[in-house]
Amino acid sequence: MRLELIVDGLMRNYGECEGSIKYDYAYQLNRSAIIGVIDTLRELIFPGYFGKKNISSDFLAYHTGELLEEVVFTLSKEIERALRHRKDAEGAVEGVFKARADGIVAEFLSRLGDVRRVLAADVDATFDGDPAANSRDEIVSSYPGIFAIMVNRLAHVLYLLDVPLIPRMMTEHAHSLTGIDINPGATIGRRFCIDHGTGIVVGETTVIGNNVKVYQGVTLGALSTRDGQALKSVKRHPTIEDNVTIYSGASILGGSTVIGEGTVIGSNAFVTKSVPSGTRVSMRNPELRFTTKRECDGCQDISCTELAQEAFWDYQI
Fold first, then answer.
1. CB contact set of 52 (below 8 Å; sequence gap of 6+)
2. What is the pLDDT of residues 60-86, one digit of tens each?
3. What's the CA angle centered on 32, arms 30 and 33, to 5 degrees?
4. pLDDT tens per residue across span 243-267
5. 23-179 architecture in CATH?
6. Cβ contacts of 157 within 8 Å, gap of 6 or more
7. Over the stretch 112-171, which tens digit does the pLDDT of each residue have?
8. Secondary structure letter of residue 57 according to DSSP
9. Quick check: 209 and 190 in contact, CB under 8 A?
10. Could you say which of 2.60.120.230, 3.40.718.10, 2.160.10.10, 1.10.150.130 is the CATH number of the domain covering 186-317?
11. H or E segment at 47?
């Protein structure tokens, strides 16, 4: 094998596809450091559950300060690097990025108490809505939905502070661990409950109200992204009002789609238009056939003995 030929081929390829490589660039982000920040923030939000255990109340303030110092040091450095990736970064005065990053981190940390307060309400909603949950300890320490919501709420603050790259890196880390894909731009109200969670997708311009419960496999998505970057500032994803329940496998699509307060969306429903408040939406149940082996011995007709079940809710689609 002649490695120099492969090197030459790759160098030509690099020249043809420059948008997907970084060289002569000293400010690439450290993904491991950002994941470390998530872990440290989780210790701050749920002290005693993660990281150092058996924290004495006498030393809680010292421990909290130590963790905050760690976040400030790492996150400031990564945000400074991220700001240099912006299109308007070229030609900026040296030192402006660090000052801006320090300001962003200070504002982010000032909102940490509010984020923690909302997450406590999310834990309560999950416990109240899940008969399989034995305690809030179980939810905090093991439920993937709470982890995904926590990361999203933290990333959303950075998103609102106009930090490039890092919010999406945070939520994609949570996505890789939980199978729950929530864009950091999504706006989510209080007492948000994710049950099971695997396969949930929530798009960037989604707005979710208070007391909303979502089951596995739900998509809150766009009708079409064919126009790509031209849709960047357009609301593409639905609005879910307060007290809505969305069961497994449902898809709700479109920026003008509004799911009214108190609505229940049944499993596998495909919704592309607004639904009035207090409505139940379901797909018409498929016909189920039950055939016993004894009745079918020697018979090729699977419908020789069948029972059909039909269930209708108030609003059929």
1. 43, 63
2. 898 999 999 999 999 999 999 999 888
3. 65
4. 999 999 999 999 999 999 999 999 9
5. Orthogonal Bundle (1.10)
6. 108, 111, 115
7. 999 999 999 999 999 999 999 999 999 999 999 999 999 999 999 999 999 999 999 999
8. G
9. no
10. 2.160.10.10
11. none
**CATH 2.160.10.10 placement within the chain:** 186-317
Two tokens, residue 122: 């999310």
DSSP code per residue over 260-313: -TT-EEPTT-EE-S-B-TT-EEEPPPPPP----HHHHTT---TTSS--------
Partners of residue 282 on adjacent β-strands: 316
SS (HEC) of 201-235: EECCCCEECCCCEEECCCEEECCCCCCHHHHCCCC
Q: How far apart are CA 240 and CA 105, in angstroms?
A: 31
- Write out the residue limits of the CATH 1.10.3130.10 domain(s) in the chain: 23-179
